[in-house]
Structures are given as structure tokens and as C-alpha cells.
Write a structure and sequence with these properties.
This protein has about 240 residues and is α+β, with helices and mostly antiparallel strands. The protein has 11 helices and 6 strands. The chain is about 45% helix and about 15% strand. Helix 2 crosses helix 3 and helix 3 packs across helix 4. The longest helix has about 40 residues. The chain is globular, with a radius of gyration of 21 Å.
């Protein structure tokens, strides 16, 4: 009887595990399908004032900081890796390139898998970048519009880099959190140059108040507002010290 009971329990455990794996696979498939559909460009849903195409590409090719990015710009490798892709582009733009997104995690398998499953928060991405020891990494959130604009105005400063975390909905009409580097600021037209890491999007010029609105949204993973990551104080010596 004991053998029968143990055999029954074993079969029950196996059945539960199989069901759990099947459900996890179904949820994962549904999530990736949903995310993929949201990440595709839909220009007819873009907010008024958002400039793309040749206008944005011309701005990117003429800006000093944007040019530092575009020579080796990489788009994200997976649906959830916009944060690491943004970090890779920042590092390459200051002369401290890394081969790929996984290398950025420096052997942290759990961190890598967690990112692949659910993306990254603002603080987690900032911590990942800080591990490279290339300069001062600062998280900026809960900013007033004036304080936000003050930061964005520094986007053309060769001693700084900015990554923005925002919700695509106010700008691109699809509700999904996203990271991308900021490549410059056009003060005359009050437009922020976004170097989007999602394949198919390319550069875009976004009115600063519109980008601010997209940043002033909560991350569902933490309940905290999105924001900016500023990387500053780096130089060629810092870049040389960055880990391979």
C-alpha cells in the first residue's frame, strides 16, 4: 500500500509540474505575442508633433552626441532588452564597447534570465550600468517639468549621457514601458532626439512636454514613476578601466 501511495503521489506531482510548465509556456507565448504587437511602429497612432523619417535622421546625423552613437548603434536583441541595449549604446558611444547584451550582465545568470522574462526597472538598469565603473550613474525621477527640461538641455554635453524610461502610449500610441538613449536637444524647436533601440523605429524628435508626460507614468513592476538615468563624469581613463 505504501508503494501504491508513493507512486500515486509521484504521478500527481509530475502531472502538476507538467501542467505548470504548460501554463507558463502559454503565458509566455501570449506575453511575447502581445509585446511584439505593441512594439511594431504604427505611425498613424503617433502623437501630433512627433517627427520621424528623414527629418529625425537628419537631426541625428548632424548632432555631435547622436553621431557618437550612430556609428555603432545596436537595436535590442529581445522584446524585453531595451534597457541593456540602451546601456550598450551608451558604453560604445564613450569608447567602452561591450560585445552583446548578455556580456553586460558579467555572468549574472539570474539577472539575465529575469531581464529576458520581464524586462528591467529604472533602478535595476542604473545599477547594472554602475557596475561598469565608467563614471557617476544617477537615477532622476519625480522631476518637475522645469527640472526635467534642465536635464534634457544637457543632452548635447559631451561629458554626459542620458537614457530615458517612458511609456510609449502618449508618444507612439501603444502602452508598453521602454528605454532608449537621448541623442540631443533642439532648443529652437524644443524637440528631444530619441534614439530608439527597438528595430524598425529609428530616431524620432519628440516635443519635450510630450516626452515628460510619457516619463511621468508609473512602472507597474514597482509602482514608482519612470525617469532618466544620467551617466556623467567619465573620461578616456574611466573608459579604459571599464570591465571587458
Amino acid at each position: 500500500m505504501r508503494f501504491v501511495a508513493r507512486s500515486f503521489r509521484l504521478r500527481w506531482i509530475i502531472a502538476v509540474l507538467v501542467l505548470a510548465l504548460a501554463l507558463a509556456g502559454a503565458v509566455g507565448t501570449a506575453f511575447h505575442f502581445h509585446a511584439r504587437s505593441l512594439s511594431q511602429p504604427q505611425p498613424d497612432r503617433y502623437a501630433p508633433g512627433v517627427l520621424v523619417g528623414e527629418t529625425a535622421r537628419s537631426a541625428a546625423s548632424s548632432g555631435p552626441i547622436a553621431r557618437a552613437y550612430l556609428g555603432h548603434f545596436k537595436t535590442q536583441e529581445s522584446l524585453t532588452s531595451c534597457g541593456p541595449a540602451s546601456a550598450l549604446n551608451v558604453l560604445a558611444s564613450i569608447g567602452a564597447p561591450i560585445a552583446d547584451e548578455r556580456t553586460l550582465f558579467d555572468g549574472d545568470r539570474w539577472g539575465w534570465l529575469s531581464m529576458r522574462m520581464q524586462g528591467m526597472t529604472l533602478d535595476a538598469l542604473a545599477a547594472l550600468i554602475a557596475q561598469r565603473r565608467i563614471g557617476e550613474v544617477t537615477v532622476l525621477r519625480d522631476l518637475s517639468y522645469e527640472a526635467f527640461l534642465s536635464q534634457v538641455r544637457e543632452a548635447d554635453n559631451p561629458a554626459d549621457r542620458l537614457i530615458v524610461n517612458f511609456d510609449r502610449a502618449p508618444i507612439f500610441g501603444v502602452a508598453i514601458g521602454h528605454f532608449s538613449p537621448i541623442g540631443g536637444y533642439d532648443a529652437e524647436r524644443d524637440l528631444v532626439l530619441l534614439l530608439d533601440v527597438t528595430p524598425g523605429y529609428g530616431p524620432s524628435l519628440i516635443p519635450s512636454k510630450l516626452l515628460y508626460t510619457a516619463v511621468q507614468t508609473p512602472d507597474s513592476a514597482t509602482g514608482r514613476m519612470r525617469g532618466l538615468i544620467r551617466i556623467s563624469g567619465f573620461n578616456t581613463t574611466d573608459s579604459a578601466k571599464a570591465r571587458p
